[in-house]
Specification:
Order of helices and strands: HHH
Strand content: under 5%
Structural class: mainly alpha
Oligomer: single chain
Radius of gyration: 20 Å
Largest sheet: none
Helix content: over 70%
Length: 98
């Protein structure tokens, strides 16, 4: 019984670690995107800061959405939501040689 409790604790810890990592990356990348867009499109410092804040909000919001899906999903599907995809190509079936 102790092993099952330990498994669920490590599963929850892995989910939290993945969600914190996802949130940090999306916050930084969206803020940088907002900063770039602000430098490109706006002249006023106020609107540049607003575009950075808007980008940060988008990053945090998208990370929150994905993390809430992970915590609401069963443990078998949560690993597939956060795991990187190895390949998008389908395997090619081999023809039988005669």
């Amino acid at each position: 019984m102790e092993n099952k409790s330990n498994n669920t604790d490590s599963d929850v810890n892995a989910k939290w670690d993945a969600c914190i990592d996802l949130t940090a990356r999306r916050f930084v990348y969206s803020s940088l995107g907002g900063a770039f867009a602000g430098l490109l499109f706006f002249r006023s410092p106020v609107t540049r800061w607003a575009s950075i804040a808007f980008g940060a909000g988008i990053g945090i919001g998208s990370a929150y959405t994905d993390c809430s899906r992970v915590f609401d999903a069963s443990s078998s599907t949560s690993a597939t939501l956060l795991a990187p995809r190895s390949s998008t190509e389908a395997p090619v079936p081999q023809a039988a040689e005669e």
